[in-house]
Amino acid sequence: MPAVVIDGKAISQKIREDVQRRTTILKEKSITPCLAVILAGEDPASISYVTAKEKALTEAGMTGRNIHLPADTAETKLLNLIAELNKDTSVHGILVQLPLPRHINEDKVITAIDPAKDVDGFHPVSVGNMVLGRPGFLPCTPHGVLVLLREIKHPLSGAHAVVVGRSNIVGKPLANLLTRRDVNATVTVCHTGTKDLVRHTLEADILIAAAGKPALITPEMVKPGAAVIDVGVNRVPDSSAKNGYRLCGDVENAVAEKAGYITPVPGGVGPMTIAMLMQNVVQAAEESKV
Ligand code: NAP
Known about the structure:
- By secondary structure, the chain is an alpha/beta fold.
- It contains nine helices and eleven strands.
- A hairpin with a 7-residue loop joins β9 and β10.
- α1 (8-28) packs parallel to α9 (269-288), α6 (140-151) crosses α7 and α6 (140-151) packs across α9.
């Protein structure tokens, strides 16, 4: 039987409706949640991500402060801008779209954001809080994956989750969240240094692909009935497409014949990432008034 396709759009819509409701309550108290989105340069993928975030903010009734800087912006200028936004009480969240132009040190920029406004959850304080299980902002994509898994009621406690990818924004935090006591999965993290990737993926009750490599996960690598979460977003050339490319994940389509659950790309993890970001912004605004 083919896999159940997990509808990330529908699940994210429920979260966004809740965000809208919380935003309305804040607005009645004259607080409009506001996210400052900083984009440096003209990377087409980054521009499309920023546009999607602005659209979601508007739909939720929140305000987006869109700051588009040229690619050659000096690092100090960006740091000064963040310092101003940190002080600005009408701004509740600050998001710097990554990747930044090469001459700018990403670590410095992320660390400059006030942790109370770190709605991406990338600041070392947010990461520390997450690892310690303390309250704070969770990174949006890993949090979105966890919400998806909970929503389909896939057994998590005692499950073996295999995460392919160990980046700071997806693989590492996801592995951490999955081992939380209230999730209780056993986690294997794979990367380019992993020997015999297939041996690991075949053991997965939950297989999460976050490598950024089209068709990395083939049916032969998947345990029958596993939940397969495809985080990858890759642009592959497609002459039949209007813009010359199409989006695909890290998982081959044929995996749907073997898996129990699967997320589509687009329409799986992507919408969840945006919904979790909106949730973090409204949370930042709620916490700002106390
Ligand atoms: P990244 O920083 O490039 O990290 C990729 C990770 O995958 C690295 O840890 C790398 O290992 C590992 N990897 C690459 N090729 C591999 C292979 N053949 N076998 C095993 N491991 C391999 O990427 P990222 O930022 O985590 O993003 C991953 C993907 O998710 C990208 O396609 C990105 O566009 C997508 N993404 C989607 C969303 C969303 O909302 N849907 C959000 C964020 C990212 P090493 O550490 O050894 O190099």
